[in-house]
């Protein structure tokens, strides 16, 4: 199956219509879920009133932050084993998107946390800390790729770092969980309160789906740009060699 | 004459670099002591406050000081071509990488551990707890050096890669820093020391392979 997807011509033919379709469908669903979240669903006093409406951006971005690191690790592994260039292009494209989603997750979390927890930032919360570490892993990945001289070296170095990071992520999660369970402040309002009623759950799940589809569309767009960039490089090289 | 095995050569060379130009071994020590010295000026000099954060400050200073001279560990070998020879030897490159990192830890990491009791006492930490804590600082420092070594190998071909190394390595320090700080608070009998050793063993089992993959990339 990987071999079928690894063909750049097939990818370009497929993504030509699939990428804009994903962006449109994702954007439409996103607008619907945000509209539901901001205007339609009733406010929930347990989660701090109107501020809980941040959930419809915050929770999908947290899901996408996790998923994008897994995607980065998986595409890096595929590139490292089979050297399919498309896998490397995918990894390169996922990194800035993942960094943006982790940043969005942290920003919306802070905005939600200020009125409900009374603070912008809570070092005790294990999930916040894990996402913050992941944000730095993404930044390091991008910085390393940018520092390498050639594309091939950037791909190899990036893949090694992404895989080292991926084996560390469970350990980081585990250690942060232990650490925060020692520090946990009892007065903090727990996010996982009562089971979520469907009136919230449906827009939330649709929102998560919307962000995933949108993310896939953005990744394909960036990969297409990368393919065009490499074709341009080949053309320039041909012209310079005078053939 | 037969050339020495790359393992011994790498080890001896890393030990020798400690006294080479630029004072390899003194640089991390100066940084470590200087960073710890700055703390009372910034958080206040009350003894009760300092004694409660002293062990943690030593961890932060150790983590940062472990990265000070990491940039040169593999870069120098790449520049003078030794790395290329090592990559062609029969001895697996991951063993050479491990020897290099451990030797670097012996000359730049172990002195910091020996320095933790006097600096800890200056930071008003209970003196009796500092000697058993040296085991934790030693184990944690080894993990810092191993992950730093991976970052150093990845950045070996990058000019002025020092800051890049910090950005790559610091997120990987998190588990060791957490269990290390808990272990120094709990003392030698607690479970955190075991967790700390586990993170060091984990680093020991992964970092040499990742570093050797990165070194092969730097050589190509």
TrEMBL record, chain A:
InterPro entries: Cyt_c_assembly (IPR002541), Cyt_c_biogenesis_CcmC (IPR003557), Cyt_c_biogenesis_CcsA/CcmC (IPR045062). Keywords: Cell inner membrane, Cell membrane, Cytochrome c-type biogenesis, Membrane, Transmembrane, Transmembrane helix, Transport. It is found in: Cell inner membrane; Membrane. Pfam families: Cytochrom_C_asm. It is a multi-pass membrane protein. The chain crosses the membrane at residues 21-41, 61-82, 94-113, 128-147, 159-180, 200-222. Residues 17-182 form the Cytochrome c assembly protein domain. Its main location: membrane. Belongs to the CcmC/CycZ/HelC family. Required for the export of heme to the periplasm for the biogenesis of c-type cytochromes. NCBIfam families: ccmC (TIGR01191). This is Heme exporter protein C. It comes from Henriciella marina.
From TrEMBL, chain B:
It is a multi-pass membrane protein. Its main location: membrane. The chain crosses the membrane at residues 21-43, 49-70, 91-114, 134-156, 163-182, 194-219. It is found in: Cell inner membrane. Keywords: Cell inner membrane, Cell membrane, Cytochrome c-type biogenesis, Membrane, Transmembrane, Transmembrane helix, Transport. Coiled coil: none annotated. It comes from the Bacteria. The keyword Lyase does not apply. Pfam families: CcmB. Required for the export of heme to the periplasm for the biogenesis of c-type cytochromes. Belongs to the CcmB/CycW/HelB family. This is Heme exporter protein B. It comes from Henriciella marina. The lineage of its organism: Bacteria, Pseudomonadati, Pseudomonadota, Alphaproteobacteria, Hyphomonadales.
């Amino acid at each position: 199956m990987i071999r079928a997807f690894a063909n750049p011509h097939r990818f370009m033919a497929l993504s030509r219509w699939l990428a804009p379709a994903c962006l449109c469908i994702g954007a439409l669903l996103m607008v619907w879920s945000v509209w539901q979240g901001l205007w339609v669903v009733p406010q929930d006093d347990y989660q701090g009133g109107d501020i809980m409406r941040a959930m419809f951006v915050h929770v999908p971005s947290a899901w996408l932050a996790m998923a994008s690191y897994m995607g980065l690790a998986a595409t890096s592994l595929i590139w490292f084993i089979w050297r399919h260039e498309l896998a490397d292009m995918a990894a390169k494209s996922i990194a800035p998107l993942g960094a943006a989603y982790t940043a969005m997750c942290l920003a919306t979390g802070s905005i939600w946390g200020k009125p409900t927890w009374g603070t912008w930032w809570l070092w005790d919360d294990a999930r916040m800390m894990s996402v913050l570490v992941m944000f730095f892993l993404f930044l390091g990945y991008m910085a390393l790729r940018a520092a390498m001289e050639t594309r091939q070296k950037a791909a190899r170095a990036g893949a090694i770092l992404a895989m080292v990071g991926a084996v560390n992520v469970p350990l980081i999660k585990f250690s942060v969980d232990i650490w925060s369970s020692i520090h946990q402040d009892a007065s903090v309002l727990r996010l996982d309160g009562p089971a979520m009623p469907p009136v919230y759950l449906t827009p939330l799940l649709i929102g998560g789906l919307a962000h995933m589809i949108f993310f896939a569309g953005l990744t394909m767009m960036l990969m297409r740009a990368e393919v065009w960039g490499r074709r341009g490089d080949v053309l320039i090289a041909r012209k310079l060699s005078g053939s | 004459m037969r050339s020495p095995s790359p393992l011994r050569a790498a080890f001896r060379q890393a030990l020798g670099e400690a006294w080479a130009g630029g004072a390899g071994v003194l640089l991390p020590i100066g940084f470590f002591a200087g960073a710890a010295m700055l703390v009372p000026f910034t958080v206040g000099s009350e003894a009760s406050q300092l004694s409660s954060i002293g062990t943690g400050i030593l961890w932060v200073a150790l983590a940062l000081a472990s990265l000070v001279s990491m940039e040169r560990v593999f870069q120098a070998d790449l520049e003078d071509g030794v790395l290329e020879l090592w990559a062609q030897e029969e001895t697996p490159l991951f063993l050479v990488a491990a020897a290099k990192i451990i030797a670097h830890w012996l000359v730049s990491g172990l002195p910091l551990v020996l320095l933790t009791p006097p600096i800890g006492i200056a930071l008003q930490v209970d003196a009796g707890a500092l000697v058993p804590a040296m085991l934790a600082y030693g184990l944690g420092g080894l993990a810092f050096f191993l992950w730093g070594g991976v970052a150093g190998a990845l950045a070996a071909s990058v000019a002025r890669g020092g800051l890049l190394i910090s950005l790559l390595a610091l997120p990987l320090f998190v588990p060791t820093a957490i269990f290390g700080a808990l272990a120094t608070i709990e003392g030698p009998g607690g479970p955190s020391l075991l967790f700390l050793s586990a993170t060091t063993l984990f680093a020991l089992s992964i970092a040499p392979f990742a570093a050797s993959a990165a070194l092969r990339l730097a050589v190509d």
